[in-house]
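ok so for the tutorial part 2 we go from a plain amino acid sequence to predicted structure tokens. step 1 is just haveing the sequence, like this:
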Amino acid sequence: MKTSDSILVTGGAGFIGSHFVLDWLANPSAPPLVNVDKLTYAGNLDNLSSVLPDPRHVWVHADMGDRARMREVLAQHRPCAIVNFAAESHADRSIHGPQAFIDTNIGATFALLEEARAYHAALQGDSQAGFRWLQVSTDEVYGTLQPGDTPFTETHRFVPNSPYAASKAAADHLVRAWHHTYGLPVVTTHCSNNYGPYQFPEKLIPLVIANALDGKPLPIYGDGQQVRDWLYVADHCDAIRTVLAKGQLGAHYNVGGWNEMANLHIVQTVCELLDRAQPRADGQPYASQITHVADRPGHDQRYAIDATRMATELGWRPKETFATGIEKTVQWYLQHPQWVARVRSGAYRDWMQTQYGSGA
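step 2 — the prediction. this is what the tokens look like for a chain of 360 residues:
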């Protein structure tokens, strides 16, 4: 059996996945893309409205953990690569409800790995040699850093501290084992905190924008000095395409934005941009809405990515600075209030229930 030129993307209606789909199809000569998404709360077909009519975009509403369904998809479309974005990805949610993270990030990944292993074994010649599984992971698997520690490199050991991070670390170990035991050709990326358009408003930056405009408190955990490296989502998608094309089999690649900043500074920066772009009616700064709340359990103090390997081996560096990326992000949310309103109000989820029933 031979592959086609298409690739299969899981979780392609989520925040990062949908950006990858849009970026991929923005190239008129790009091969078809098969987009599989279960459409949980964070999956949003609104993100993909511009490409849903595109014949190169094959939409499949399915759970990647459904082995029979995925076997059919692989047999029908014969992709030359699988890019696995699908994951439960919010650390706060994992603390309150870890089961979904175990089921999706570990169980469903295992199920698709098994189907990919059988599919790959049946390929022949160049099709088998050229096939790739790209596992999209996170820097949270590495645990936490102290202020003076050197940033995470690809050889840093896994020390996950939240149920989310532990489930992603487990998935990464499965992917590694399927490579070393069964010969499945894999590469893995570990990204830092992503931001940009279409991000579900439970995450820090879109939450701050939405709450600020609504006159609600801007919650900051503890003293707000938790440090993260911030990566504009379009740069992340570019890095994934680079790793897919040139990455060494079995290798891990850290993808960062070279932007270490404390959470409080991020919130203050967003407030300053909103002050200029859409001032409050009473003339007060949006930063007056900042409210410090009790820190969450097991909150990691600092993440920092050393993306040197991406630069030296693959020639990749982010194009956006934080200043340019956050400006684009704030402007996008100000220009798309209906998208935010639909996601926050539950109208979108109600539509999905009507459209797809209980399976949505």
